[in-house]
Amino acid sequence: KRLVVLVSGSGTNLQALIDAIGSAGPEAYGAEIVAVGADRTGIAGLDRAARAGLPTFVCQVRDHDSRAQWDKALAEATAAYEPDLVVSAGFMRIVGKEFLARFGGRTVNTHPALLPSFPGAHGVRDALAYGAKVTGCTVHFVDDGVDTGPVIAQGAVEIRDEDDEDALHERIKEVERELLVKVVSRLARDGFSIEGRKVVIP
Ligand code: GRF
Predict the structure, then answer these.
(1) Contact 11, 90 (CB under 8 A)
(2) Which of 21, 66, 84, 128 is the most buried (most CB within 10 A)?
């Protein structure tokens, strides 16, 4: 299967996918990364892609007249690589109608909280501020809401008294990377269907 991975930041989730595919081989893993897309330049995620020899594309909101045009450009840039699955791995933008029309139902996102708790851009900070004792990460399909799509898998992480946002996020990301790598491989190898909110993997 063909994967396009979208990133906005350090790209450690992308790296985990690159490493897993590299060590298992694309056939055993079930998928290969055919391109990495970003919504900004100068991020470690793009460097990681380049180091792995992967094609990259950048689609910046500010280079477009409207959000809708940006969304269309992102959809077109993604479509050029003919992906079977899109992985939003720390991609900090909400995709729009055009993107969802083409890739809805096959775009996977990873979020650093146990949804439906703490959606949005500050899932780690919000869980800490709330005083939650357990948080974690959620791998889910993207729909037209903010972190509201059908859940594929979750991993739990305990919050420690001494945690700050960075320390907690790092522990979440360890679980998150492993979960994402597993989920993407299963989806790619075994196929899936989405029945309402339920994701069925045979
Ligand atoms: C992940 O925790 C992701 O869920 C969040 O941002 C982080 C991205 O990390 N929204 P990286 O860029 O993959 O290192």
Answers:
(1) yes
(2) 21
**Separation of CA 65 and ligand 1 centre (Å):** 28
Distances from the Cα of 183 to the Cα of 61, 85, 152, 188, 194, angstroms: 29, 12, 8, 8, 14
Q: Which is the CATH superfamily of the domain at 2-111+143-154+177-191?
A: Formyl transferase, N-terminal domain (3.40.50.170)
* Mutation probe of ligand 1 site: the residue of 5, 110, 111, 125 with most atoms within 8 A of C-beta: 110
Structure tokens at 184: 């993407």
pLDDT band at 21 (very low <50, low <70, confident <90, very high): very high
Are 111 and 140 spatial neighbours (Cβ–Cβ below 8 Å)?
Answer: yes
Which of ligand 1's atoms lies nearest the C-alpha of 89? 13
Can you tell me the ipTM of this complex?
A: 0.97
Whether pTM > 0.90 for this model: the answer is: yes
Ligand 1 pocket member 88 (CB < 6 A): no
Domain layout of the chain by residue ranges: 2-111+143-154+177-191
Ligand 1 in reach of 11 Cβ (< 6 A): yes
Give the residue numbers annotated as catalytic, written as ranges.
Answer: 111
